[in-house]
Specification:
It is a single chain. The protein is mainly β and 736 residues long. Strand 4 and strand 5 form a beta hairpin. 48% of the residues are buried.
Length: 736
Amino acid sequence: MAHRLRTYLCVTAALVASPALAQEQPEVQDGDIVVTATRTESLASKTPIALTAIGGEGLRDAGISNPTQLADVVPNLSIDRGNGLQITIRGVTSRDGTEKGDPSAAFLLDGIYIARPQAQEVSFFDLERVEVLRGPQGTLFGRNSTAGVVHVISARPVDRFAASVDATYGNFDTVQATAMLNVPVAPGFALRGAVNYDRRDSYIRPWANSPWKLDPGKKNLSARLSALIDFGPDVTLLLRGDYSKIDGRPANTVRLTNFFSRPFTRGTRSPVYKDIGSTAQRTRDYNEGSESFYDNDTWGITGELNWALGPVTMTYLGSYREFNRHEQGPQDLSPFFPTAQRGVFEGHYWQNSQELRFAYDDGGAFTGQVGGYYFKEKSGIGAFIINPPMAIFPVGTPAGVIRYGFPQDPTISESKGVFGQFTYELVPALKFTGGIRYSHDLKSRVGQTILEYPAPIGILPLQQNNARRTFSKVTWRAGLDYDLGNTLLYASVSTGYKAGGFNDGCEIGTGTGCSLPAEALYYDPETITAYEAGIKGRFADGALRLNGSLFHYDYKGMQLSYSSTICGGPCQVTTNAGAAKVDGVELEAVLSPHPAHHFDISLNWLKARYTSFRPVPTIDYAGVRLDRSPTITASAGYTFTQELGGGSRLEFGARVRVSDSYLLSDVAVPVVFRNPSYHKTDLTLTYRAPDDRFFVQGFVKNLENVITLQGASAQYSSSAYLADPRTYGVRAGVKF
């Protein structure tokens, strides 16, 4: 119905008008949405996997303006800011955001895998929808999707004139603005351009006597231009180009002592938590020691060609992207040094992604697709700590170091895959789906760990960081789904794989000074076997929608990253943590008994724990929960719509999210920190003009001003990474 709120939980949000230039879409029922979770178009309510789909207007109505806020409405999802975005789905995550690491959840923009987590957030504007797929997607999406997929899909050009402007002003001097213009240049040819400005002050308060500014915490400017060309009834070409300038001051940590009392003793499971209030928790109690800044940029081009050849549709998807990093920030090395040191980072990355798929559908009992995939990323970086304190180095290191760092060039990640998936209707309404994928990954790096001294000493290499290894794996999926009309039942077994990698150093016998055995230098792939059953139902003529899933994971070779000193000073090490198991239940309900009243409820139970892991020989983590995996989470939302006459209306929205306590571990010490249970409330009040020509909205997120932890490190700086505090402001938008 026109006045019903665009739902923004699983199988929610109203579908934007289907563009005439786009491919024909399935018939949409009220409250449903078309998704591409299976790489072909299908209704979310008829797609037999656990997913959440949120349309562009649903994102706006829910106040979701960046990827981290997706966790407010998506079950068992956490997206945290650290060294870029860290995505956790159902307890499965990766802590390695470096050039040699891979995430466990794939982040895609318009079907293209975005390798660098530092370049993902700027894609979040002028969107058609966002799809979050929970569980391993090792067949159709392949690499680095053991946890799942977050797919951001930008709006396509349409064959009519359209324009809009949306703007937000809020506390922390937040300014967000997006302008869009869509022009039908000629029959079968349309252009769409969008520009976005995203600026706010830092959530972190500086040390009282600090000479350094922390504002603005973020200052990004992004633009995207898309062209859709219809060459006839069977061939369409979609071209996209985007550019983002990423500026600001990267202050997103405080010392862990703002939250926990020392000592952080080896083997401690729950250091004492201190609730000293939002302002004190967000305040630094040390001299930053240097100015911090981002001066980064990223750009990319993407082409998607669809060619219908009778019952077969060929899709080619290709992209080239670059990312440049120029950053400086304090490196807090306490307790060795009372003032933070200056750290600098220089990096250049490029990635090339190519995919070719053939999908078959003649309207009969058999459908399927096959394809091939190629990805390559190459980077060169230099990361340095300026004038580091000698206490961080082994005894005997010559004094007078002016730089300690890691110049690495090149680091290469290359992945090749072939895949196929088919669905066959065994009897009316009962379908079997089977899929298989072969992946081959190569990783290599040439680099050093160095100390730099004044002349005449100059550069003193501590070790070579040279490594090369290949990995391969067959992943598969098998499932059944039964469509009862208004109810879909499904069950599946699927597998996921993430390639292994290497740490700093080089293997014995491969070069001068190489002293590491292979088992210390390299780590193995991680794999998941997932068993899942679910239901998606619509009742009472669509007024009630119920979704539920029950799942179990066998998780092997889990990759954990932590800080260490095995490379002559501070560095990151990744190791295989043994095994884990994940069990869970996800339940969601959406109720619209009347056009004026809309309810949604989500209740989730998760038991994600190690079954075999000893961070040190004397400490056993068996039974300890995985990080960012609260046992119970729940959310409830209500929207009331009041008609004002003439087609205008007023909407009041309220949402509360409740979470059990969760753990954050530093396996290098080892010590486990517990973030207490909490609840956060969001409120909105929106006026909509007739025909949605314009809107004005007041909002507040995290009304309670609860500060929750996104990460914790007990070494050196004992850093705590924080989620957003209370934010509030006004949004307004107009359509032309």
